Amino acid sequence: KRSYNVTLLPGDGIGPEVVAVAKDVLSLAGALEGVEFRFQEKLMGGAAVDAYGVPLPEETLAAAQASDAVLLGAIGGYKWDNNEKHLKPETGLLQIRAGLGVFANLRPAAVLPQLVDASTLKKEVAEGVDIMVVRELTGGIYFGQPRGFGKNDKGEDTGFNTEVYSASEIDRITRVAFEVARKRRGKLCSVDKANVLEASMLWRKRVTSLASEFPDIELSHMYVDNAAMQLIRNPKQFDTIVTNNIFGDILSDEASMLTGSIGMLPSASVGESGPGLFEPIHGSAPDIAGQDKANPLATILSAAMLLRYGLGEENAAKRVEAAVTETLNNGFRTGDIYSPGTTLVGCKRMGEEVLKTVESQSAVA
Ligand code: NAD
Ligand code: IPM
Ligand code: MN
């Protein structure tokens, strides 16, 4: 029997609600493939600030580093919004990404036929969209030095950040993106702001020079402002997008809305070696936390990515994805993806319905 250690980081807000559901789905799909999980749950984010006085306790990072894969819910909330930077939940998230070295964040945004009506775009625009955003995750303006608060020469308060990318940081994310594009439809669009920013000028230069290693891939470049517009105008022109940390953050939230809801989008973050980090792209949704309203499908689909990219358990991953499709076919919808004629359910019930469909698969397997 194959056995894996998985660290669960439920986090804050809706995080614990969606992780509880995804854990059960992961267990059951694994069991049907002869896979066993040993779960350990650790605190991070605001929950860890409250319990330990830091957003990423050493114990949590050590457990994550020692495991085979990490499943994260979400962190953050009003309570900690005005904390000093080192006591912010978000700081803990950046620390665990850096601590695990997961520089490549894969954020797929595919419009499922069952959810075309949930998109705010016209059916003919949304239908068939299937994009993979490859976001650089451990560099750029999120991590660049110098950063901080200061004073300008008029004595006014200032806040400043620095975007820095080294050639090797750009090269490694670009190679991942070319490989991803190769397994998809063979098109890669690199998004930058090379008309203004030096970090983007180097980005474009490196991406262009690496293209010769991937002659089978059709490479294009686009400025981020245009990309934001094109994603809404004609999203089907995109296959794989590679971009820096902050542009990837923003464009993936935008892309989520093509699919109907941010509550649908999973992600996988991987590095050169060591465990991957798997998390929905959404946040802790404090506006609906504790009300059993969250859509758990993004986290369930993140568990599928954990199985595929984190553990190489492709069959179990397919089971989870098939169960999500089947549950949508059965008409179940959380509020964020609801449309008339479907059955409105909460987070827990959605989880139960997904579990039921995984169970029913065992008969045919
Ligand atoms: P958010 O993604 O938490 O919420 C944005 C909107 O989407 C809200 O209306 C929310 O109710 C809705 N939403 C999000 N996930 C949903 C789900 N699964 N089902 C149904 N609706 C969902 O973004 P925000 O409001 O800008 O941020 C809230 C907090 O989350 C902040 O503290 C922020 O820093 C943090 N955050 C954390 C992560 C993370 O942990 N990876 C990501 C983004 C934001
Ligand atoms: C995300 C979030 C984080 C990010 C924040 C909470 C640090 O928005 O995971 O997309 O910007 O990366
Ligand atoms: Mn984000």
Mean pLDDT, rounded to whole units? 97
Let me know the CATH homologous superfamily of the largest domain: Isopropylmalate Dehydrogenase
Task: Extract low-pLDDT stretches.
Answer: none
Q: What general form does the structure show?
A: globular
Q: Strand count, sense and closure of the main sheet?
A: 10 strands, mixed
CATH class of the largest domain: Alpha Beta
Order the strands across the largest sheet as they lie in space: 2-1-3-12-11-4-5-10-8-9
Query: Which sequence of SSEs, written as H and E, runs from N to C?
Result: EHEHHEHEHEEEHEHEHEHEEHHEEH
Note the gap between the termini.
17 Å
Strand portion, in percent? 15-25%
Q: How would you describe this structure to a colleague?
A:
The structure is a single chain. The chain is an alpha/beta fold and 365 residues long. The chain has two domains: 1-108 and 264-365, Isopropylmalate Dehydrogenase (3-Layer(aba) Sandwich); 130-258, Isopropylmalate Dehydrogenase. It is 42% helix and 19% strand. The protein contains twelve helices and 14 strands. The strands form three sheets. The chain has a ten-stranded mixed beta sheet, sandwiched between helices. Strand 1 (2-11), helix 1 (15-32) and strand 2 form a beta-alpha-beta unit. It is globular and about 65 Å long. The model has no long low-confidence stretch (mean pLDDT 97). Bound molecules: nicotinamide-adenine-dinucleotide, 3-isopropylmalic acid and manganese (II) ion. Residues 76, 90, 93-94, 249, 281, 283 line the site of 3-isopropylmalic acid (IPM). Its EC number is 1.1.1.85.
